[in-house]
Write a structure and sequence with these properties.
CATH class: Alpha Beta
Strand order of the largest sheet: 5-4-3-6-1-7
Distance between the termini: 19 Å
Helix content: 25-40%
Number of strands: 8
GO biological process, one term: riboflavin biosynthetic process
InterPro entries: DHFR-like_dom_sf (IPR024072), RibDG_C (IPR002734)
Organism: Actinomadura livida
GO molecular function, one term: 5-amino-6-(5-phosphoribosylamino)uracil reductase activity
Protein name: Dihydrofolate reductase
């Protein structure tokens, strides 16, 4: 049975992107990158919103992880490519092998099915996708970076109060 996990890098004031849309402040140190690799080993599938998918796909399948890159990056690229990826989008028309397009209207039913069928964590990537599926998320992770950016895209955009249970 899959466990839906939403984890994102964020500033200490709760933003995953700064006011200019940049997220360079989340560049991980090697030990943080190694922790991400360890997390991906427990991952049964990635569930991405379109924008995060586009930010991740090409770099990790074509550019990063190449000869000469740090070992931690090469390992992440290998793990990334081996993990099934689902991109939730109404605009994408095609994706490479290893990636499945899910239309937004089908999002909840697909995630519920994946929870039943996939062993390992179902890692949600993308604040808007997580906000739309908040009732299906089993675990929230915030990887806080020691920076204040003063505005931008929040870690989890929701329209009303959502009560959570601390575990």
């Amino acid at each position: 049975m899959g466990n839906v996990v939403y984890g994102m890098h964020a500033s200490m004031d709760g933003f995953i992107e700064g006011p200019d849309g940049g997220f360079g402040f989340t560049e991980p140190a090697e030990d943080v990158h190694q922790a991400a690799n360890d997390q991906v080993r427990r991952c049964g599938a990635f569930l991405f919103g379109r924008r995060l998918y586009e930010a991740m796909e090409k770099p990790w399948t074509e550019q990063l992880g190449q000869e000469g890159a740090p070992a931690v990056e090469r390992e992440f690229a290998r793990l990334y490519k081996e993990t099934p990826r689902y991109v939730f989008s109404d605009t994408l028309q095609s994706v490479p092998d290893g990636v499945t397009i899910v239309r937004r209207k089908d999002a909840a039913s697909v995630v519920e099915r994946l929870k039943r069928e996939v062993d390992g964590n179902l890692e949600i990537g993308g604040a808007e996708l997580a906000g739309s599926l908040v009732d299906l998320i089993d675990e929230f992770l915030v990887y806080e970076f020691p920076v204040l950016v003063g505005g931008g895209k929040t870690y989890l955009p929701v329209e009303s109060e959502v009560r959570l249970r601390l575990v």
